[in-house]
Inverse folding.
């Protein structure tokens, strides 16, 4: 049998064991701190990347893309070509806005959007705005056509008091704003050729109403 350890030697061994244990604990704690920091950095990077490529506004999501009109929304459309009555998805349509939907909050909107089978657009030819009016009308008409609405342009039409069709009138005004003039009639007033922001505001409000019908 070997010689018995002295109390001093036993204490020295215990001290070494405790020291090794403390070092191992420091290594483990340091490892978990490192993993935690890496996880925080990755999460922050993902969050920042997501926020930089997405815009959320009143419950609807826009992708930020590298286009002339950088704010893109995906709109689901169903098999019958409308926005009510069926759950069979047919396709996704993309719509692009040139203005940040959050900035359009500044445009006064005093109306309730309704969707009907027919829409009549009325706008004077004088409201050309260096071609912006053509883009505005095309985008707006495409949205409602995708929703199953027949859209026509008629300068001589007026508001229908019985609400049998949507009447959308665009004209110059002292302030860019949108007001409701009848049960399904709207006036988009355009100041300083702000026709793109004005019509895109109407589109955003339409997207919000569609979202209520088709989540």
């Amino acid at each position: 049998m070997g010689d018995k350890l002295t109390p001093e030697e036993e204490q020295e061994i215990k001290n070494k064991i405790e020291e090794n244990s403390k070092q191992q604990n420091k290594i483990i704690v340091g490892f978990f701190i490192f993993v935690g920091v890496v996880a925080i950095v990755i999460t922050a990077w993902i969050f920042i990347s997501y926020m930089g490529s997405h815009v959320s506004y009143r419950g609807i999501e826009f992708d930020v893309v590298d286009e002339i009109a950088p704010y893109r929304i995906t709109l689901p459309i169903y098999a019958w070509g409308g926005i009510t009555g069926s759950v069979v998805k047919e396709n996704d349509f993309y719509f692009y806005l040139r203005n940040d939907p959050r900035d359009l909050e500044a445009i006064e909107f005093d109306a309730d959007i309704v969707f009907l089978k027919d829409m009549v657009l009325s706008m004077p030819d004088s409201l050309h705005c260096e071609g912006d009016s053509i883009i505005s009308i095309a985008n707006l008409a495409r949205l409602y056509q995708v929703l199953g609405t027949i859209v026509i342009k008629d300068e001589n039409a007026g508001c229908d008091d019985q609400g049998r069709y949507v009447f959308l009138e665009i004209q110059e005004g002292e302030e860019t704003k949108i007001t409701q003039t009848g049960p399904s009639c709207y006036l988009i007033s355009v100041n300083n050729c702000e026709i793109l922001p004005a019509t895109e505001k109407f589109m955003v409000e339409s997207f919000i109403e569609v979202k209520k019908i088709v989540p």
Q: What stands out?
A: The radius of gyration is 31 Å. Residues 10-50 form one domain. Strands lie at 54-57, 60-64, 71-78, 89-97, 108-110, 118-122, 150-153, 166-172, 177-182, 185-190. Confidence is low (pLDDT under 50) at residues 44-51.
